[in-house]
Write a structure and sequence with these properties.
single chain, alpha+beta
Length: 530
């Protein structure tokens, strides 16, 4: 009984001494710049933030960690670290049971004290289990954080804003490939041919969310001032056409690489201005579903990486600086001025003015328009019909409707001219002079945000004549909603004072609308009445 008691006392001690050499946590140092933030992500314990003194506590039970470097105004970068350093204490874990085995066969019984004999037996038999169970490699003490290589170029004052990003993903089976690597070094060297798999990825599985707006804000490419225009139209937009996707798998982590065609387009006419084919990559991330999954985070990483490359291109920067808002003329040859017959019988009352305002419907929504000639010319906002020059429907107060075509648009001034092929009875006279004074009683007419596109009217006054971004606007407290864009601001005689374009939005701001004065229409759209 005494010998068995010795064995029970020695067993916990041997367990601790052998196992501690490869299971205890250790501190590692990740070298990085002072203006960088570093994160460490493990497969089981999640994200760790750098501790005081620039160290991380890591566990040698973890097979790998992801180091991610985050820096202001830069695209984040990442890499995987694995256990590479030989576990030196493991030599003791092996030599100890080996020596005990030798002693078991060479020493005579009862030569040593009972507790010493018990220790030799336990270590000689059980010690091999613990010695062989632990890892042969552990983490190094020092690592270099991956340096961010892509910066966000600063938007210059003369450069145009970009309204949004369209992401088109159409990757066939042969365009999506999955590679599996045993460790990060193999991925870097690619000396060993990895396992290759092909699979079809459904487009709706990898469609980007509204994260693209956040990215534009990061790059300061979207107008976020939000002081005047609720839906300010800009000249430019970006289109991403994803051609191929490559999935790289390393120790439970995944990175996505892509070939993407990036195009800068005129936001109104969809005309390509400059295009580039870019190769981008996401950060290394842990995924519950590794094969074939394309998470929202991977998508965001890819778009951010490709966007940074595109915007760092010198020719792209020059294009953004040199691009100016231009007239878009769709019908026939370019014209210096387009002659339009003036309205034969212009509006003379508020009730007639309501009949001279129409609803304009496109696949993207609806707005309003003002009839200005008997032969079918209608003035509206360019943002009402942007990208819909072949799909415009005009609805009249009697519920009839006709297709319209785009004649001209000035994106900078947010004005457009469309035409329907029919004779019209009522219309506004843009030629006649009207008195616009602060305090003048006015009415706003436009299509309300209802499914039946009803044209409604609201009453107010001219609050101010003011300039915004160097352009003149009539400010009014007339109730304005989204469907009123392109509608009419009239006086008590029914005369057209201007085209409704936007309303001010923001916390505590209500009832402030903006109208393009009537006398700006002819010069902006290059039209004359004769």
């Amino acid at each position: 009984m005494k010998r068995q008691a010795y064995l029970l006392l020695v067993l916990p001690f041997m367990f601790f001494s052998c196992a501690s050499s490869y299971t205890k946590n250790k501190k590692i140092v990740v070298k990085h710049a002072s203006d960088e933030k570093v994160e460490l992500t493990a497969s089981s314990s999640g994200v760790k933030i750098l501790e005081e003194g620039g160290t991380f506590a890591v566990s040698n039970k973890e097979h790998s960690y992801i180091i991610t470097t985050i820096k202001d105004n830069c695209v984040s970068s990442s890499k995987i670290i694995t256990r590479k350093k030989f576990n030196t204490p493991k030599l003791l874990d092996i030599l100890l049971p080996l020596a005990c085995n030798v002693a078991m066969f060479t020493l005579k019984p009862n030569t040593l004290a009972p507790i010493a004999e018990s220790a030799i037996v336990i270590t000689g038999i059980g010690g091999w289990f613990w010695a062989l169970k632990g890892p042969w490699q552990v983490y190094n003490k020092n690592y270099d954080a991956p340096a961010p290589t892509l910066s966000y170029p600063q938007k210059k004052p003369e450069q145009s804003f970009i309204s949004g990003i369209d992401i088109n993903v159409n990757v066939p089976k042969e365009g999506f490939t999955s590679y599996s690597y045993k460790d990060f070094d193999e991925y870097i060297s690619k000396n060993v041919k990895p396992t290759k798999q092909e699979r079809q990825i459904a487009t709706d599985t990898i469609s980007l969310t509204r994260e693209e707006l956040t990215l534009l804000d990061k790059f300061k490419l979207r107008d976020t001032s939000n002081t005047i225009f609720a839906s300010k139209l800009t000249d430019l937009k970006l289109v991403f056409n994803v051609k191929t996707l490559e999935e790289n798998l390393v120790l439970g982590a995944k990175q996505i690489q892509s070939k993407t065609e990036v195009s800068l387009l005129n936001n109104f006419s969809n005309t390509p201005i400059i295009s580039r084919e870019m190769e981008g990559s996401s950060l290394w991330r842990r995924n519950i579903v590794l094969h074939g999954a394309f998470s929202a985070q991977h998508q965001k990483d890819l778009v951010e990486n490709v966007l940074a490359q595109f915007l760092n291109d010198q020719e792209v920067q020059q294009t953004l600086s040199n691009y100016k808002a231009t007239m878009v003329e769709k019908e026939g040859e370019k014209f210096e001025y387009l002659a339009i017959k003036p309205i034969a019988e212009n509006v003379k009352s508020i009730s007639e003015a309501v009949k001279a305002v129409v609803t304009i419907v496109t696949k993207d929504g609806h707005g309003s328009g003002c009839i200005v000639s008997n032969d079918g010319y209608i003035i509206t906002n360019s943002h009402v019909i942007a990208n819909n020059d072949t799909n415009i429907t005009v609805l009249f107060s009697d519920s009839s409707h006709l297709k319209a075509k785009l004649i001209a648009a000035n994106i900078s001034d947010d004005l457009a001219l469309i035409k329907i092929d029919t004779a019209l009875t009522y219309g506004f006279d843009v030629n006649e002079e009207k008195l616009i004074e602060i305090g003048t009683e006015v009415y706003g007419i436009g299509a309300y945000n209802l499914d039946d596109y009803t044209v409604s009217i609201s009453k107010g006054i001219v609050s101010s004549i003011r300039k915004v971004d160097g352009k003149e606007f009539i400010q009014t407290d007339v109730t304005i909603n989204g469907g009123n864009s392109g509608g009419a601001l009239i006086n008590t005689k029914g005369q057209l004072l201007g085209i409704i374009t936007a309303k001010m939005v923001g916390k505590g701001i209500e009832g402030i609308g903006f109208v393009i004065p009537y006398h700006k229409i002819k010069e902006s759209l290059k039209i004359k009445f004769e």
